[in-house]
Amino acid sequence: MMDINDIKGTTTLSNGIKMPNFGLGVYKAKDGKEVVNAIHAALEQGYRHVDTASMYKNEEGVGEAIRSAGIPREEIFVTTKVWNDDEGYENTLKSFEQSLEKLQLDYIDLYLIHWPTPQYLDTWKALEELYRSGKVKAIGVCNCLEHHLQEIMDNFDIVPMVLQNEFHPRLVQQSLLDFCKKHDIQYEGWSPLMRGAIFEIDELNDIAGKYNKSIAQLAIRWSLQKGAVTIPKSVHKERIIENAQVFDFEITTEDMQRIDSLDKEERTGYHPDHFLNPS
């Protein structure tokens, strides 16, 4: 059960690991001062979850921020990901060690496959090995659909503990949420603000006004109430603070349904089945 009434609230993954329900995404945050300052601002606000990836090219800064924050390492949940060009069994093991070296951490809390390339099953084999070695506390996948998850479950012993996908009121994918719940896979949403496009949805503005909240706060709260771990990204301190002010209100069932009804299967990123050949 997700505790969504506290910024430090967690959900328990299928293997017993506690994952914070709310975190900071650092996609496009520049390595060095920018990402360090963003993470420090987030940690000061109570965030305890940072989501990066080898593709973001800022793992060094993420590690520096965590080490210099003055917060015990075990209190901060760190996610990184293996990129498409590094997939496959041997390449994934090498890529993981490179990420660990850049982060300068003893372990990773969550390691994810970034996209389901044709080698993702071999990649999953490597993730299982990393998990069993203790270098990773939990493993999962990003940007996958039911059939990708089913294929992993049909071929391996370990079911992905987390699925991180694009998730916002224009892309609900309720059947996928239900599939994950059935198989005890924690859903996690990226791009909860649709890369800014969410502010153009007039109905969200109307609903947000009822709660004295911004559209961003409404969308983040909706995501949490849908059962999704949520990682809005920002490098601006004021936005990092605003995004965290979502634990003092609750959206009614009626308004949750109104927001759900805005679903248009609209993506800001690639479709998981077509990202290699988007045309």
UniProtKB/TrEMBL annotation:
It holds the Pfam family Aldo_ket_red. This is Aldo/keto reductase. The keyword Oxidoreductase applies. Belongs to the aldo/keto reductase family. Residues 28-263 form the NADP-dependent oxidoreductase domain. Keywords: NADP, Oxidoreductase. Gene3D superfamilies: NADP-dependent oxidoreductase domain (3.20.20.100).
